[in-house]
Amino acid sequence: MAAALVLLIGGPLVFTFASAFRDGETRRHEAPLRALFGSSVYDQLMRGDAIPQNYLGNDRLAPDFTLRDQEGNDWNLRAHRGHVVVLNFWTVTCGPCVEEMPTLVDLSRIAAERGDMELVTVSVDHSFDEVRTVVPSDAPLRVLLDADRHVTRDLFGTRLFPETWIIDPRGVVRARVDGARDWASGIAQDAIRSFL
């Protein structure tokens, strides 16, 4: 009789505790993504809905492109499959872009240590001389130049800056973030790592 009473009372308590624990773990995992992207965009991501930009395409693959970096080397997006690519579009004439640049430099150092993430900025300025006024020469940040805005505007549809795209290891666009963020923050890093 006592054993039945323990099961009758204890069973629902164990079930309630397990459910609360599982819900807490889910919320802990979701928190960085909700903080970085906002709840409505996060909910769309988790349902697998296309984020409401019609230029993503049905398959949501990021459009491939090749641009030159500050060292004069060609950089191709498709060649970086297998890594999460954080792609930031910006210009030196954009105040929020300049303000967020130190956090992108910090994130580039973190990415260099990790090895499974690539941070790339695409500047629409006219020359790398302009870019050097904002990006320190010793930063491990890869900067690409898109002066004619073919990649920025024509392929990605970006017209306002800064705009950051997160592309998963399969080349699928997982998120687009409009506006400046603190990319070196723990929340941003956790959000990016969730796409690995």
- Rg estimate, integer Å: 21 Å
Q: Termini, distance in Å?
A: 52 Å
General form: elongated
Query: Which structural class is indicated by helix and strand composition?
Result: alpha/beta
Integer average pLDDT = 81
Beta strand count: 7
CATH architecture annotation name:
3-Layer(aba) Sandwich
| CATH topology title | Glutaredoxin
Number of domains: 1
Uncertain regions: pLDDT < 50 for 5+ in a row?
Answer: 50-58
| CATH class value | Alpha Beta
Helix fraction? 40-55%
Please name the fourth-level CATH homologous superfamily. Glutaredoxin
Main β-sheet, spatial strand arrangement: 5-4-3-6-7
Helix-strand topology string: HHEEEHEHEHEEH
Number of helices, where a helix is a run of at least 4 consecutive DSSP H or I residues? 6
Question: Sheet with the most strands?
Answer: 5 strands, mixed
β content, as a range? 15-25%
Summarize the structure.
By secondary structure, the chain is α/β, with parallel strands linked by helices. 42% of the residues lie in helices and 18% in strands.
How does this model look, in words?
By secondary structure, this protein is α/β, with parallel strands linked by helices. It has one domain (50-193): Glutaredoxin. Helix content is 42%, strand content 18%. The chain has 6 helices and 7 strands, in the order H-H-E-E-E-H-E-H-E-H-E-E-H. The protein has helices spanning 2-37, 39-47, 95-114, 128-131, 150-155, 186-193; strands at residues 66-68, 74-76, 84-90, 117-123, 142-145, 163-167, 173-178. The strands form 2 sheets. The chain has a 5-stranded mixed β-sheet with strand order 5-4-3-6-7, covered by helices on one side. The protein has a two-stranded antiparallel ribbon with strand order 1-2. A hairpin with a 5-residue loop joins strand 6 and strand 7. Helix 1 (2-37) packs across helix 2 (39-47) and helix 1 crosses helix 6 (186-193). The radius of gyration is 21 Å and the shape is elongated. The N and C termini lie far apart (52 Å). Residues 50-58 have low confidence and may be disordered.
